[in-house]
Amino acid sequence: MNAIVRDVMTTHVVAVRQDASFKDMAVRLREHRVSAFPVLDDQDRVIGVVSEADLLTKEALDLTGPGKVGGILHHREQAKAAGLTAADLMTSPPVTIGPNEFVAHAARLMYARRVKRLPVVDDDGRLIGIVSRADVLSVYSRPDADIRSAIIEDVILSTVLMDPARFTVTVKDGIVTVEGMPETASVGHDMIEEVRHVEGVVAVRDRLSYPSEHPAPVSGPLF
How far apart are CA 213 and CA 220, in angstroms? Predict the structure, then answer.
């Protein structure tokens, strides 16, 4: 998909300073109905993230009781449970992304690092937005008619330079079916690959009739 993070990110971000107290963060989580805060230093650079899970570590410690902590919480979690400020509780270094990265990269990063959101930062590491899983998935809300138009105009006409009349392109629920015969098999494969990257495409059904790359041998004597 071609969408970039800037297209889908939220620019109104609820963030906290590194000296924010546990109580202040707990209150703000409820007030703003968010599940995590980017943590900023004095230059507005993102230095960590505090999530509900980080705050719940303290509650877990309180409920565990003396003598059982070591068996349940790791040493790092024990230190976090004793924390009083955002700097104590945050997960650092943060997993961030730039505004001009592709949304597909954001999705892969969230999946690989098992995070639900990514602070969006500029070249100096300063916070300019946040992108969530829901934001990333929003690219799949593109209407089927728009997807089909993009395939015909941007892929068939502009990229592989073929006549759209040679193909039948149908799109239903983001699933694209392409039928027809390309000039060569390699051109057909290239076209299908380009279609996969059109914004909003969920899957591609390749129904092309590929011509042979090698001409059939001529039988009989040649004169």
Answer: 22
What would the pLDDT profile of 137-168 be if each residue is shown by its tens digit?
998 999 999 999 999 999 999 999 999 999 99
Instruction: Say which CATH number the domain at 114 has.
Output: 3.10.580.10
CA distances from 113 to 62, 108, 120 (A): 28, 8, 15
How many domains are there within the chain?
A: 2
Residue 218: inside a domain: no
| Domain assignment of residue 114, yes or no | yes
Tell whether 220 is covered by a domain. no
HEC profile for 64-112? Answer: HCCCCHHHHCCHHHHHHHCCCEHHHHCECCCCCECCCCEHHHHHHHHHH
Nearest alpha carbon to residue 3 among 100, 95, 111, 96? 100
Domain interval for residue 107: 5-139
**Strands 203-208 and 117-121: what pairing?**
unpaired
> What radius of gyration, in Å, describes the C-alpha atoms of the chain?
26
Q: Is pTM beyond 0.85 here?
A: no
CA torsion 69-74-78-81 (nearest 10°) is: -100
Task: Report DSSP state, residue 138.
Answer: G
List, for residues 15-34, the tens digit of each pLDDT value.
999 999 999 999 999 999 89
